[in-house]
Amino acid sequence: RLSRGLAPALGYLGSRQKHSLPDLPYDYGALEPHINAQIMQLHHSKHHAAYVNNLNVTEEKYQEALAKGDVTAQIALQPALKFNGGGHINHSIFWTNLSPNGGGEPKGELLEAIKRDFGSFEKFKEKLTAASVGVQGSGWGWLGFNKERGQLQIAACLNQDPLQGTTGLIPLLGIDVWEHAYYLQYKNVRPDYLKAIWNVINWENVTERYMACKK
């Protein structure tokens, strides 16, 4: 009974397909000069790939623990599942949140919601930038949607903690502030990276996510 109760953490009880690294919707150099090709290549092909590989390994071990009814082993695997599963979820959103044709401001309903919940687009930018700069160590700054309140909210998550799985907010826009996301170009000056990333934010993607979770 206990082991079945923990199973939904992985969303399966039987056979499963392995997770795979998603293709980027643009070339590694497409976001230059704001994020250089070397960072993008390492970030996608090494860092994200490692989360995917380790998630698959963790899920295999979890499946074995489920089959044996070994609740202790299941609990012991939870941190690795959260870290690697979160890393895969977060980066899969992040790549689509960026575009070589990005920048500027959102339009339509998303812009209206931003104005309603933050006062103006500039105030929203300031708040999300401040939340992202303020992450101690590694983590993410997020624009999320609170479905219960019908409101946009800004949140910061440590490490690879996935926004929805840890706060309940639906992720719309994530900004990766792990040093591997910017160090090769911006060194330790995180605010410069955050200033630059607004030039490649894919507002069409963020708007699609907003419209989908409003349904």
Query: What's the number of extended β-strand segments?
Result: 3
Helix content: 40-55%
- The global form is globular
Q: Any idea of the CATH topology of the largest domain?
A: minor pseudopilin epsh fold
Structural class: mainly alpha
> Unreliable stretches, pLDDT < 50, 5 or more residues?
1-14
Strand content: 5-15%
**What's the end-to-end separation, in Å?**
35 Å
Q: How many helical stretches?
A: 9
Q: Provide the domain count.
A: 2
Major sheet description: 3 strands, antiparallel
Helix/strand order, N-terminal first = HHHHHEEHEHHH
Indicate the CATH architecture of the largest domain. Answer: 3-Layer(bab) Sandwich
The averaged pLDDT comes out at 93
**What's the CATH first level of the largest domain?**
Alpha Beta
Order of neighbouring strands in the sheet with most strands = 2-1-3
Domain Manganese/iron superoxide dismutase N-terminal: 18-99
Subcellular location: Mitochondrion matrix
Enzyme class: oxidoreductase
InterPro entries: Fe/Mn_Superoxide_Dismutase, Mn/Fe_SOD, Mn/Fe_SOD_BS, Mn/Fe_SOD_C, Mn/Fe_SOD_N, Mn/Fe_SOD_N_sf, SOD_C_sf
What does this structure look like?
The chain is mainly α and 215 residues long. Helices cover 54% and strands 11% of the residues. It folds into 2 domains: 37-97, Fe,Mn superoxide dismutase (SOD) domain (Helix Hairpins); 108-213, Iron/manganese superoxide dismutase, C-terminal domain (minor pseudopilin epsh fold, 3-Layer(bab) Sandwich). Strands 2-1-3 form a 3-stranded antiparallel sheet. A hairpin with a 4-residue loop joins β1 and β2. The longest helix has 32 residues, at 37-68. This is Superoxide dismutase.
